Each structure stands twice: as C-alpha cells, then as structure tokens.
Amino acid sequence: MKRVENKVILVTGGAMGMGRSHSELLAAQGAWVFVADVNAAEGQATVDSIRKNGGKADFLQLDVTQEAQWNAALAQITERAGRLDVLVNNAGILILKPMQDTTNDEWDRVFDVNVRGLFIGTRAAVPLMQKAGGGTIVNMGSMSGIASNIPQNQVAYNSSKAAVHMMTKSLASEFAAQNIRVNAIAPGYIDTDMSRGGIASPEWGPIWRNMTPMDRVGQPDEIAAATLFLASPASSYITGEVLVADGGYTTR
Ligand code: NDP
Fold first, then answer.
1. Whose CA is closest to atom 19 on ligand 1?
2. 12 in Cβ contact with 88 (< 8 Å)
3. Where are the beta strands (DSSP E) in 108-219?
4. pLDDT at 1
5. DSSP three-state, residue 186
6. Edge to edge, what strands does the sheet with 242-245 contain?
7. How much is the pLDDT for 7?
8. Could you tell me what percent of the chain has a pLDDT over 70?
9. What whole-number distance in Å separates Cα of residue 53 and Cα of residue 160?
10. Which of 122, 120, 123 is nearest to 137 (CA)?
11. Is position 249 annotated as part of the catalytic site?
C-alpha cells in the first residue's frame, strides 16, 4: 500500500525546487497531484516527468497572491477530482536585505506571497476538506522563523516564516475538531534556486555549513520525505507541529 494512495493533493510552487520534489514523491506514493505554480513551463515539465514515471499529475496556473486564481484552481480540482485531501502550501519568496535597505514594497511583497497567499488559499481550500469530512495541510515554514540567520540579514523573510508557524498552530487549533490537521516544516538551507547563490558564495556558504552540525546543506527530497509523513496517515495524531528539518542548525 502506498502512503498517500488515491489522495488528491495540491502543491503550490510545485514547479521547481522543493515543490517539485514534494510533487514527485507524493505522486510516486499514489497521489493525484495538482502542481500549481506561476511558472507554467517548469510546472508542465514537472507534470510530464511524473506521468513518465507512471504517476498522476496535472498543472494548474496559480499565483498564490491572487484570490481569483485560487478559486479557479480549486474549482478545477473539484470538477476533475471531486475533492481535495491535502494542501501543501509550499510557494515562497526570499528577499535578502537588511532592514535599512528593505523598502515597504519589498516587505509587502514577501508577506503577500509567504503569508497572505497562504492565508487566502487555505481559507478557500478548507471548505472542500470540510465537505469531505477532513483533510491535511502542510505549510512550508523555515528555520528562519525560529532563528535569525547569519551572516546575511533577511528581516522580512524571517518575520514572514514566523507568521507561517503561528498561522499553522492557530489553524490546527481552529480546525482540529473537523478532522483537518495543519502542520508546518521548518527546513534549514536546502539546495534549490532560492539558496544556491548563498551556498556557492565564499562569504556565506562556509558559514552556513559550519553553523549546521551535520556540516552540509539539505536536498529537496529530504524535505519531501517530511511532507509525505505529514500528508499521510502516519502522522494521524500530529497537528500544530512545526517539524524542523535543518541538519541541526537550530540546536545551537
Ligand atoms: P524555489 O524558489 O526553488 O521554488 C519556488 C517555486 O515557487 C518556483 O517554481 C516559483 O516560481 C514558485 N512561486 C514563486 N512565487 C509564487 C507565487 N506567488 N505563486 C505560486 N508560485 C510561486 O524555492 P524553494 O523550493 O527553495 O522553496 C520552497 C519553500 O520552502 C518556500 O516557501 C521557501 O521559503 C521555503 N524554504 C526554502 C529554503 C531553502 O533553503 N531553499 C529553506 C527554508 C524554507 P518562479 O521561480 O517562477 O518564481
């Protein structure tokens, strides 16, 4: 028995990086995955790769900041699959700037995608889960919502991820009685486009690794494994948890 057999799962930011890994692993474990992203070309490539490996997936155009697009995407899922079992709120952006250089627009943009996008999307998706008698939500937080990274400054991002963690706990409490579990993952540095520049940088990369007890960055599939756990019945009594997957970074 596969671990998410026949589950209908929406992954935001599913085209690239960790979103692609979540989508591929969940599909390999039996789910019908709706890969939702602003990047249609990469999103379709992810879908094609899943199908080539025998999995079931479809692409949906979705900018998580646009409520009308959420409604359209969820309507598509309802029409095609009839229900939504799992929502993986993975889409996120990073602005690497210290406070004095961060404009109001940049602050708003980070919060629009990372926090408000997650809020409006989850609010739109929950009624589908309620109708089906339950569901599971997995949010992508960050170790940056727990500890302040060094040497780079990224106040807007860190604050947004702390908000994701608190939203996770708030919604877990609000929806527990309706059989909807809400958890988050707090990854450390993961080898994706978002972090690759920093990992390769001679100023930052060695510090990032030295600060990580496991002395390496993580790979996207190591986070996808955590997503699979939280999406599957293996975590049936877990809700409101922020599962840290950071090679030990926040132990220090
Ligand atoms: P990537 O930048 O590699 O991929 C993110 C994907 O989301 C891209 O396909 C991107 O499209 C898409 N996306 C961006 N904005 C939107 C939007 N408004 N609506 C829908 N899709 C969007 O990111 P990662 O895979 O590294 O990160 C995934 C999540 O994990 C994020 O929430 C991130 O904050 C979090 N995280 C990442 C860490 C890391 O070290 N990489 C560490 C901790 C947490 P496009 O490329 O076209 O913009």
1. 63
2. yes
3. 135-140, 180-187
4. 81
5. strand
6. 56-61, 32-37, 8-12, 86-89, 135-140, 180-187, 242-245
7. 98
8. 100
9. 36
10. 122
11. no
The residue ranges of the chain whose pLDDT is under 70 are none
Tokens of 93: 């952006």
Q: Which is catalytic among the residues 157, 189, 237, 249?
A: 157
Q: Which amino acid is at 98?
A: P
C-beta of residue 98 within 8 angstroms of C-beta of residue 153: yes
Ligand 1 nearest atom to the CA of residue 42, by list position: 9
| Amino acid occupying residue 134 | G
Amino acid, single-letter form, for residue 113: V
Tens digits of residue pLDDT in 98-141: 999 999 999 999 999 999 999 999 999 999 999 999 999 999 99
Degrees (nearest 5) of the Cα angle 230, 74, 228? 15
pTM of this prediction? 0.99
Write the CA distances from 79 to 71, 113, 218, integer angstroms. Answer: 12, 26, 37
Pocket test for ligand 1, best of 87, 192, 217, 221 (most atoms within 8 A of CB): 192
Distance CA 85, CA 166 (A): 22
Cis peptide before 213 (omega within 30 of 0): no
Can you tell me which residue has the tokens 């589950």? 7
Asked whether the CA dihedral 239, 240, 246, 252 is positive or negative, the reply is negative
* E strand spans, the chain: 8-12, 32-37, 56-61, 86-89, 135-140, 180-187, 242-245
